[in-house]
Structures are given as structure tokens and as C-alpha cells.
Amino acid sequence: MEKEKNKKKILLSGIKPSGVLHIGNYFGAVQQWVKMQEDYESYVFIANYHAITSVQDAERLRYQTLEVALDYLAVGLNPDKVNFFVQSDVLEVAELTWIFNCITTMPYLMRAHAYKDAVAKNEEVNVGLFDYPILMAADILIQDTNVVPVGADQKQHVEYARDTAEKFNHIFKKEIFTLPQPIILSETGVIKGVDGRKMSKSYNNIIPLFGSDEIIKKAVMSISTDSKVVDEPKDPKKCNVFALHKLFAGENLPKIIEKYKKGGMGYKESKEILIENMISFIKPMRDKREDLAKNPDYVLEVLRKGGTVARERAIKKMKIIQECVGIIKTLN
Ligand code: ADP
Ligand code: TRP
């Protein structure tokens, strides 16, 4: 009983290796994992199966998978606390996806935002993209996950996982799956990009977390603002530059608010302050990343260790699921 009470809850989250980590990813999702790693039994992974829905170039996928691994470790995921792994090392998720597919209807998946957006843009939708929420449900449910810290855009996906868990439990008349909770921060659930829309790789409006100083300067200088001149007072709440100051200014934020309200600071100056704060915030992580990049064997070893733990749990869970569904395995 005592042991039960002290048992840590399970945290799981992932990111697709489909491009470089940006400030939206960091403040919306990744930073939460770093903060929560002390208090949860954590599973964080690189969703390379999900990435194949869009990245169909072996060299690029391999490269980006390892780059994302460096990003995660550099921002402070501690491999002694977190089981950090590559999705494809837990092949049981593919098996579970198939089982879930068989209890999922097409109209239900047609309501997914990502699918609807792709259809609205007249894009060709592959079956993998259509089925994306179900693979994600398998990732989450196979580990008996309690909490899934993500950005606001992933809320619907976690709801798909909950629905799928409930449906499975209902059809097979057993409480096999735990219902996961999304954790979305109200302040940083949606970070805006340089054009004022949600920052996203697919909108080309990102500020990369590990970009060079030059890239960061260029991105910040391109943030869209209104046309108020230097002397005019400005409303921080309406300013895309200010939205980012909130993340990087720390204790200097009240001073910046004052400058906005008083007038006398142009957007150029505001952007310069932001660049300076951003670069000093990123520097220690950037230095750590450079060190890690010199030691790819260490990174692979971390992934192997995390993958072993995640896989063992998944194998155990899969046995229970197979039994429940009536799948016979005659080989080990
Ligand atoms: P992208 O939209 O750039 O392709 P991903 O889909 O790979 O980003 O997102 C990875 C994680 O980062 C998810 O948890 C997602 O919710 C979060 N995230 C992405 N963009 C933002 C943003 N602009 N603000 C807050 N969180 C975000
Ligand atoms: N769909 C998530 C994203 O685009 C990545 C992801 C895959 C994920 N499986 C997951 C996130 C399970 C949380 C839990 O960012």
C-alpha cells in the first residue's frame, strides 16, 4: 500500500524528427518535460515512425533523428531520470496501432484537425497521415501513461488516445488501458512565430533554438509589427516582439513594459534587446550541444538504455493486450 502511494506517475511525450527544434517546441512542450523529470517516471521519445508521413528520405531521417537527440539532451533532459528513446525501438507500437485500427472508424479519424487541414489544402493524404492519431494513441497507451505534456496543437491527439483507450476497454470488457491527461500550459501552449501565427515548421515562421547568432538575428528582425514610430507609446499586449520578451526577459520584463508604454523605444531597439536576451538564454544549451555532438556514441548509448526500458514495458503490456484480443503467438 505504502509502495503504491509513492509510485510515480508515468509521463510520456515525443517530438517528430521532421526539422530543427524551435522556440515554440521548447516553451510549449520540451521545457515541461525537463521540469517534470524529477517528479514523474518519464518516457520521452523521438517519433521517427510518425515522421515518415512527411520525411521520405533515409539520409535526412537518420540525420534529423540524431540531431533531435542532441537537442533534447542539450536542453536538459537528464538520461539518469528520463527514459529517452527512439520510437522505432519499441516495435510493439506498430502492432498495437493495427489492433487499434480495427476498432477505429474512418469518420472518426476524418475529424482530426491535421487531416482536415491537409484536405483543405488539397494535399495528397497518405494513409499514415490519416492514421497518425492512432499511432500516437499506441505510443501513449502502451506505456500506461498518466500525463502527456504537449503544446496546445496536440490536445486533440491526446483526446484520440483517451477515446481509443475507452473504446478498447469497452469492447473487450476489461480495464486494460489507463486514460491519459494532456498537460498544456496556458502561458506557453501556443508560441507565435515571426509572422504572428503559431510558430510551426510547416509555416516557415520559426526561430530555431539552436540557430547561429546570425540566424536568430535575422529571424527576430523579421518579426512583423505595426508601424508606430519610435516616440509613440506602444501596447505590449498587441506586439509579437513583446510576446517573446515574456519568455526571455526574466526580471527585466517590467522595465520593458514600461518602455513600451512610455514611448521612445522603437521596434528595432525592442528587437535588439530580445536578440541579446535570447542569445544569452540559449548559450549554455548551445555549448552543451556542441560538447555532446563530439560524442555520438554516448548519445546512442543513452537511446539504447532508454529504449531497453521502454521496450520491456511494451512487451509486457502487449502480452496482456494479445490475451485480451485473442491473438495467439506460437513463437517467442
Ligand atoms: P511543428 O508544428 O513545428 O511541426 P511539432 O508538431 O513537431 O512542431 O511539435 C512538437 C511539440 O511542440 C508538440 O508538443 C507541440 O504541441 C509543441 N509545439 C509546436 N509548436 C508550438 C508552438 N508554436 N507553441 C507551443 N507549442 C508548440
Ligand atoms: N504528434 C506529436 C507532435 O507532432 C509527436 C508525438 C508522437 C507524440 N507520439 C506522441 C507526442 C505521443 C506525445 C505523445 O509533436
Describe this structure in words.
This protein is mainly alpha-helical. 54% of the residues lie in helices and 7% in strands. It has helices spanning 2-6, 23-36, 48-51, 58-74, 92-101, 106-109, 113-120, 127-141, 155-171, 213-221, 240-248, 253-262, 267-293, 296-325; strands at 10-15, 41-46, 82-86, 147-149, 181-183. Helix 4 crosses helix 13 (267-293) and helix 11 (240-248) crosses helix 13 (267-293). Adenosine-5'-diphosphate is lined by residues 15-16, 24-25, 28-29, 150-151, 153-154, 189-191, 198-202.
Specify the structural class: mainly alpha
CATH architecture level-2 label of the largest domain: 3-Layer(aba) Sandwich
Which spans of ≥5 residues are poorly predicted at pLDDT below 50?
A: none
CATH names the topology of the largest domain as Rossmann fold
Task: Give the total of domains.
Answer: 2
Defining key terms:
globular, 2 domains, 14 helices, 7% strand, Rossmann fold, Tyrosyl-Transfer RNA Synthetase, 332 residues, mainly alpha, 54% helix, three-stranded parallel beta sheet, two-stranded parallel sheet, binds adenosine-5'-diphosphate, binds tryptophan
Strand-helix topology:
Layout: H1 2-6, E1 10-15, H2 23-36, E2 41-46, H3 48-51, H4 58-74, E3 82-86, H5 92-101, H6 106-109, H7 113-120, H8 127-141, E4 147-149, H9 155-171, E5 181-183, H10 213-221, H11 240-248, H12 253-262, H13 267-293, H14 296-325
Parallel strand pairs: 1-2, 2-3, 4-5
Helix pairs in contact: 4-13, 4-14, 5-8, 8-9, 10-13, 11-13
This protein binds adenosine-5'-diphosphate and tryptophan.
Adenosine-5'-diphosphate binds next to α2.
